[in-house]
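Whiteboard transcription, Tuesday session. T.W. wrote the structure tokens on the left side:
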């Protein structure tokens, strides 16, 4: 391979990755199927779309940049409370609420990123967990603002673009959540298939050596951490707007743990892994809780153990491995 060919290889790789594959088109067409096939589960479908966006935000920082986080719910809850407070005080317009939630959550993410970018591995787990617990306790102590344990009251979401009302059946909520998820996904897809995305993968593999080839590791980590926080804030705002409720559960440690489970199930660092993991986790939780409300976590744990043992790279990783074996055969 000549020097010119070596230099153009990354560009050719990125161009190949940005092309839409047939399976991707099928995936997004199938995402509309609840309208026709499962009209009684549109509320659950909207929750899955929101969970998928939340998992996608974590995938950007964990799967691509290698930033291990157990406090990602801090940004989800920040966005949820931002949209809720705006609505409570007279501004329930959905789209501007999403923008405000993204800005506030992004600012919180940017402020904490200066600490996050200086540590790796186990220290990151402790730091992100600590930040999440601190923010949850702050929201609990500011009961006059957040409603404390009782949750924020008086939230009312206006009609979407002045026409579509959020009904009890979840038709508008699902369409709205899916549309926002698709827009955010397009942004994330373009981001990871860019030179910046390639540098993130390099930082994940070797944090120390990347600055030697012109990729400032700490600066890139601050950037992607802020972006991931903003997307998580949008997901939180969507939950508030579609359910017209927000409580301390949005900041709870269990929400951070749930999104990690989704990512592990689907496969981290694969873009669609968080989306697939969210579908599997949310549907499994809905079914298991209906069968045995007291023991549904047992079945979720059993599913997680089975995936980790037999598919250590997640479901998408396992499918990719099978496809590779098939093509070689």
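and on the right, the sequence the group agreed on:
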């Amino acid at each position: 391979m000549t020097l010119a060919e070596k230099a153009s290889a990354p560009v050719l790789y990125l161009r190949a990755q940005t092309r839409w594959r047939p399976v991707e088109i099928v995936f997004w067409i199938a995402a509309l199927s609840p309208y026709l096939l499962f009209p009684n589960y549109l509320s659950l479908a909207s929750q899955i779309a929101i969970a998928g966006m939340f998992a996608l935000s974590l995938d950007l920082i964990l799967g691509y940049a290698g930033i291990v986080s157990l406090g990602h719910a801090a940004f989800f809850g920040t966005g949820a409370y931002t949209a809720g407070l705006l609505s409570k005080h007279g501004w329930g317009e959905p789209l501007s609420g999403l923008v405000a939630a993204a800005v506030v959550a992004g600012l919180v993410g940017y402020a904490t990123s200066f600490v996050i970018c200086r540590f790796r591995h186990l220290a990151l787990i402790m730091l992100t967990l600590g930040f999440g617990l601190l923010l949850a306790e702050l929201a609990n102590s500011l009961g006059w603002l957040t409603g404390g344990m009782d949750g924020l009251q008086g939230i009312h979401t206006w009609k979407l673009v002045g026409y579509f009302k959020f009904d009890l059946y979840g038709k508008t909520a699902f369409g709205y959540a899916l549309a926002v998820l698709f827009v955010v996904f397009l942004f994330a897809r373009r981001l990871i298939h860019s030179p910046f995305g390639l540098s993130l993968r390099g930082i994940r593999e070797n944090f120390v050596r990347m600055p030697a080839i012109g990729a400032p590791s700490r600066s890139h980590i601050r950037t992607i951490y802020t972006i991931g926080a903003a997307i998580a804030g949008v997901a939180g705002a969507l939950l508030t707007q579609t359910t017209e409720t927000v409580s301390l559960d949005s900041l709870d440690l269990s929400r951070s743990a749930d999104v990690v489970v989704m990512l592990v199930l689907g496969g981290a660092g694969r873009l669609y892994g968080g989306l697939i993991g969210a579908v599997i986790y949310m549907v499994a939780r809905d079914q298991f809780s209906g069968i045995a409300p007291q023991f549904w976590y047992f079945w979720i744990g059993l599913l997680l153990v089975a995936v980790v043992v037999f598919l250590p790279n997640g479901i998408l990783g396992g499918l990719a491995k099978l496809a590779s074996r098939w093509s070689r055969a």
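Someone added at the bottom: Confidence is low (pLDDT under 50) at residues 3-7.
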